[in-house]
Amino acid sequence: MATELEASRLLVFQAAALKDQGQPFNLQASMAKLKATETCMKITTDAVQVLGGYGYIEEFKVERYMREAKMLQLVEGTSQIQRLIISRGL
Ligand SMILES: Cc1cc2nc3c(=O)[nH]c(=O)nc-3n(C[C@H](O)[C@H](O)[C@H](O)COP(=O)(O)OP(=O)(O)OC[C@H]3O[C@@H](n4cnc5c(N)ncnc54)[C@H](O)[C@@H]3O)c2cc1C
Fold first, then answer.
1. In whole angstroms, how far apart are CA 33 and each of 6, 49, 58, 77, 78?
2. Which residues of the chain are under the pLDDT cut of 50?
3. Which has the closest alpha carbon to 48: 58, 35, 36?
4. Which pTM was predicted?
5. 81 CB less than 6 Å from ligand 1?
6. Is 76 a catalytic residue?
7. Helix crossing, 26-51 with 2-20: angle to 10°?
8. Sign of torsion over alpha carbons 80, 82, 83, 88
9. DSSP alpha helix (H) spans, 24-74
10. Given 6, 38, 59, 76, the catalytic residue
11. Ligand 1: distance of its center to the CA of 53 in Å?
């Protein structure tokens, strides 16, 4: 989980650095959005699994994290649309 999170963070930083430098960043931004949100979904799903029943009930925050991760895969361009942008960019 930590390794995937760190890899996602680096992709986000790379896209942000390109933007800061005034260079094209559409491809890297789509890769970062795709990787980071897919990773969020995987990590939070695994966290619910690790915690068992406690992962599912509202008294623990992880169930909310999982719902929010699903939303992040949709808003501001779904994962499928990010893949389209990436394939065009390549
Ligand atoms: C909580 C939440 C907050 C939101 N906030 C905002 C906001 O602030 N501003 C805003 O503008 N929008 C917002 N949205 C809307 C969001 O951007 C859209 O839900 C998103 O663009 C997907 O559009 P859609 O729901 O019409 O799904 P559709 O476009 O109908 O897509 C349905 C599914 O088909 C897939 N799909 C669509 N086209 C293709 C294709 N060509 N190839 C492959 N797969 C495809 C999609 O990836 C998706 O999984 C929000 C949505 C949610 C759930």
1. 14, 24, 27, 9, 9
2. none
3. 58
4. 0.93
5. yes
6. yes
7. 160
8. positive
9. 26-51, 62-72
10. 76
11. 31
CA dist., res. 40 & res. 18, Å (int): 23
- Domains: count for the chain: 1
Which residue of 41, 70, 74 sits with most ligand 1 atoms within 8 Å of its CB, as the best mutation to test the pocket?
74
Between the CA of 81 and the centroid of ligand 1 the distance, in Å, is 9
CATH number at residue 39: 1.20.140.10
User: What's the CA-to-centroid distance between 54 and ligand 1, angstroms?
Assistant: 31
State which residues form the domain around 11. Answer: 2-89
- pLDDT for position 76: 96
